[in-house]
Each structure stands twice: as C-alpha cells, then as structure tokens.
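Fold this sequence, please.
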Amino acid sequence: MTVISVIMTTYNAERTIRKALEGLTSVLNELGADYEIVVTDNESSDNTVEVLNEFGARVKVMKCTRGLGRRVAASMSRGDYLLFYDADAYANREQLYNFLSTVIKRGVGFSLAHSGVYIASRRCYSLTGGFPDLNFGEDYPFWARPSLSAGPSTTRSGSPATLRGFTL
C-alpha cells in the first residue's frame, strides 16, 4: 500500500489548522490511504500545537526554525509520497480527492495543485535534492527542479507537461 506523508509547517495557525486537517484527513480516509502527518512548528505562541495534538498518533509535531521546516519534516517522514499542505489550505474536497487519486494511480513524480498544496514522490524529492536552505520561499526553487528534470511524468494542474530545456 502506498504511504502518504503530509508535510506541514505551522506558525500561529490555531484558527486555520483544524479546518485544514479535518478536510484533508477526510479525503485521505476516503482514499483508503495509509498516511502520517508530520508537522514542524515555528515556536507558535497560540494553541496550534494543542490543536494538532487533538488529531492523535497520526500527527507528529516537532519544533523547528523558520525555513527548515519542510526539509526537516520530509527527512522525518516515511511516505512513498510527500504531500506538502499549508496549515491554512482549504482545498475543495472533490478536487483534492481527484488530484491525489490521479497522482498516485499514474505514479506521477511531482504535481502542483496550487501554491499551498503539492505532492512529490519520495524518489522525485530525493533526486532533486529536496528544499534548499532558505529562510523563506524554499518551495519555489523546489518546484522548478522537478518541473525541469522529471520530464513527462511531471504535471501541472492535472495535465502532462514537459519543461525540459527551460532555465530560470
């Protein structure tokens, strides 16, 4: 069975995290996916961590400094796929279900639903070197590498796209 590791970074997300996780976990459960949620929290001063702990053993929470969260969480995860999901993402349930089921069924290496929700196979993540060591915006250079190197298995908005040969 394919394992999905949800990678999430938080900072004072108490107001948004519950709704984001409830929507996401309902879709993952409907898919019948084996999943874990790995969250790095940047020293939130609200009740973000307490809300995360309400979701039980599937959610692993660790403290991390800004800019390193996604990389640290990815290294601590065990999934075949890494689903990067923002703490304030409210994806349409049907679209999220279709996005995830299509990516997994087709074995896509990288796909971007929108800036707050994207997925990479563990292999794609490893081959592209993961996230650079930046204090912010580390996802943009990461998105570019699989798009430029993964060839036809890369998708954007659900459509095949080959971006080989482009330079940024």
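The first helix runs from residue 14 to 31. The chain has one domain: 3-160.
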